[in-house]
């Protein structure tokens, strides 16, 4: 089932037709993506997992009437982001009720990855978001514009700005040399 | 207009390596919900089978009662299901309609339980099925 050959649209059609395995196939295909997206907005893996799962439970409710006009990931992105931000708000509220503590950054043994992660964290949120949507999620600029409800030109300028910032970061310059 | 920004392949690959997928739990609630739904898609068929069986048995029982115990006084003028086919029915309604039909009386239009414009034995079956409904139709 994880390697179901049907497209997302075909699986959604199958869900509508009552195929009980189709939704599981959709979920197994996309849950890692949903987790990755959610993790960008939450500070904990468990919260990101919750947000990803809530997004698919939302999709499960909508599936019988849903007609895709874009890729499923483009359709789901705002939902995942919404649930992830809700998770973060609940964590922030809980943190406010606890004594302050320094959150340890993730540790990468690979020095280059650690530098990249650090540089990524310094990017403004909108730039980092658009960069990761293209570079990691493989979304086109049009899909990013649709998912974020922003103009295409804004998508491109955000990614340009992010790439230029990384390029000007001394230790990361190697990524941009042929 | 902006040119399409270029992200070097090696940078894209390393950005992807920063985001490793989690170990999903075996009792993942989404899979549990999907499997529960899977179970539910089969359930109405079983319920329909039970309902049909119960309705047939109820219909037979009503016919037998009417056959051996004909009621001589006139039928009640207004059925309990006066508000239409979707309203709740009791076995008594099915029984009363059977009496009306057996006496060849003209039933009120409110007895049209299946909503097809004709009042006949099918309406008795519909009422009986509704009376023995286990309530799953709305789930």
Chart the SSEs and their pairings.
The complex is a heterodimer of chains A (178) and B (139).
Chain A: H1 8-16, H2 22-39, H3 45-62, H4 72-96, H5 111-122, H6 125-135, H7 141-148, H8 152-167
Helix pairs in contact in A: 1-2, 2-3, 2-4, 3-4, 4-7, 6-8, 7-8
Chain B: H1 9-17, H2 29-68, H3 91-102, H4 121-131
For the structure shown, list the relevant keywords.
heterodimer; A: 178 residues; mainly alpha; Arc Repressor Mutant, subunit A; 2 domains; B: 139 residues
Stretches of chain B where pLDDT falls below 50 for ≥5 residues?
42-48, 70-77, 82-86, 134-139
> What share of residues of chain A is helical?
55-70%
Order of helices and strands of chain A: HHHHHHHH
Biggest sheet overview of chain A = none
Any idea of the CATH class of the largest domain in chain A? Mainly Alpha
Q: Average pLDDT value of chain A?
A: 87
Number of discrete helical segments of chain A: 8
DSSP strand tally of chain A:
0
Structural class of chain A: mainly alpha
In CATH, the homologous superfamily of the largest domain in chain A goes by the name RNA polymerase sigma factor, region 2, helix turn helix motif
**Major sheet of chain B, described briefly?**
none
The chain-level mean pLDDT of chain B equals: 66
Folded structure, characterized:
The complex is a heterodimer of chains A (178) and B (139). With 178 residues, chain A is mainly alpha-helical. Chain A contains 8 helices and no strands. Chain A folds into 2 domains: 103 residues, RNA polymerase sigma factor, region 2, helix turn helix motif (Rna Polymerase Sigma Factor, Chain: A); 67 residues, Orthogonal Bundle (Arc Repressor Mutant, subunit A), CATH 1.10.10. The longest helix of chain A is centred in the middle third of the chain and has 25 residues. Chain A is globular. The termini of chain A are far apart. About 3% of the residues of chain A have low confidence. Chain B has one domain. Chain B has 139 residues and is an all-alpha fold. The chains are: A mainly alpha (178), B mainly alpha (139). At the A-B interface, helix 2, helix 3, helix 5, helix 6 and helix 8 of A face helix 1 and helix 2 of B.
């Amino acid at each position: 089932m994880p390697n179901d050959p049907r497209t997302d649209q075909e699986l959604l059609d199958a869900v509508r037709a009552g195929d009980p395995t189709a939704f599981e196939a959709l979920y197994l295909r996309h849950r890692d993506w949903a987790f990755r997206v959610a993790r960008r907005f939450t500070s904990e893996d468990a919260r990101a997992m919750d947000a990803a799962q809530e997004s698919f439970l939302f999709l499960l409710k909508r599936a019988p009437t849903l007609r895709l006009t874009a890729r499923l990931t483009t359709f789901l992105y705002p939902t995942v982001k919404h649930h992830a931000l809700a998770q973060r708000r609940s964590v922030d509220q809980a943190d406010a009720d606890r004594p302050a503590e320094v959150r340890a950054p993730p540790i990468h043994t690979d020095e280059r990855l650690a530098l990249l992660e650090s540089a990524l964290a310094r990017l403004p949120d909108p730039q980092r978001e658009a960069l990761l949507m293209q570079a990691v999620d493989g979304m086109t600029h049009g899909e990013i514009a649709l998912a974020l409800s922003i103009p295409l030109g804004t998508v491109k300028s955000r990614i340009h700005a992010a790439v230029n910032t990384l390029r000007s970061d001394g230790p990361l310059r190697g990524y941009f040399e042929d | 207009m902006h040119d399409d920004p270029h992200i070097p392949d090696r940078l894209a690959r390393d950005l992807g390596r920063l985001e490793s997928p989690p170990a999903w739990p075996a009792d993942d609630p989404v899979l549990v919900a999907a499997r529960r739904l899977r179970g539910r898609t089969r359930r109405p068929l079983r319920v329909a089978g039970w309902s049909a069986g119960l309705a047939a048995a109820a219909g037979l029982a009503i016919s037998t009662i009417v056959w051996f115990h004909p009621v001589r006084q006139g039928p009640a003028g207004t059925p309990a299901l006066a508000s239409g086919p979707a309203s709740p029915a009791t076995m008594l309604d099915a029984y009363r309609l059977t009496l009306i039909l057996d006496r060849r009386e003209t039933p009120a239009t409110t007895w049209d339980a299946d909503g097809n414009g004709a009042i006949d034995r099918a309406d008795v079956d519909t009422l009986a099925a509704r009376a023995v409904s286990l309530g799953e139709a709305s789930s």
